[in-house]
Structures are given as structure tokens and as C-alpha cells.
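At this stage, I wrote out one protein's amino acid sequence and its C-alpha cells, and that material follows here:
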Amino acid sequence: MFTWAIVKQALYNYPMQPKAYIETSVISYLAAYPSRDIIIAANQQATQEWWRVRKSDFEIYISQIVIQEAGAGDAEAASRRLQILQDIPLLDVTDEALRLAEKLIEQKAIPEKAAEDALHIALSAVHGMDYLLTWNFKHIANAAMRANIELICRVNNYEPPIICAPPELMEV
């Protein structure tokens, strides 16, 4: 699959790492104790493998929203999540991102109750991320919502990120 980053690299012949926005669910799976649920445990293991093997192949970013979400809940778990986030660059929550998040909600791509999820998507698009890495299949990596999310981003002159889970970015 081609991305703008690949096209730019080919056109300008310079090395460039793809940019990935890391959504909070990835950090939660990375920091959590192993689950007894076999599916969650497999997702945790896949996340840990991506972090260990592939993270260095990407410029990774988060936002203040990720920090707020990661810092919520159980204090010990929050501390583990926040420790992981310490050295990851932050994307600014801009007026443009807020407007795009509002449009994603107004145009029913994302439900109003999931405003933070709309903002994760908007931040990724506005800041030109190639990927949005998530385990949130309810509102972010939802195949039924994807076409509308992408259309709204493009109509507003933003290229949407490729929304995927860690296993989808394991291959070189």
C-alpha cells in the first residue's frame, strides 16, 4: 500500500521514516499485566513485539489527550503507562484538529460520546501522520466507519492516516 511518505521518499530520494500516532489503547496493552483473556493476552503480546521490533522504524508521536487518558484510572497502572510516554514527542492540539474532530462528530463518522476518539483521528490527519496505531475497534479502527472518516478528512483537505493495529505493521 502506498502512502504519501513513500511517494515523497521516491520523488525526493531521501530517507524518511513513516510517522505513527500512538493512541492510548496501544500504551494500555503495552503497560498492562498479562491478561487471562486469551485474545487480550495475544493483543498485549503483539503490542510488545511491535514496540520491541518495529517501533524504531517509525517516528512516533502522541498528544496531550493520550497523556490524560493514560494517566487516568488505577494509580499504579497509570504510572506504568505514563513512564512509557515520557520521551515521545507531542502533537499540538490545534484549532484545525478541533474543527476536524467536530466535523467527524457532526457528520456522524464518530459518535458524540466518543469525542476523544474523533480528536485522535483529527490530530493524526492534521499533523500528517502516515499511521494511527490503535486497538480501539469500536470507534477508531472500525471498518464500517472508515470510509466516512476518510471522506470527511479528504473533503477538509487532510489525508487520513492508515488506521491499524500493531500486527498490521509488523511486516517490512
Remarks:
- The beta strands are 19-22, 59-63, 90-91, 131-133, 162-164.
- The domain at 18-169 is CATH 3.40.50.1010 (Rossmann fold).
- The chain has one domain: 18-169.
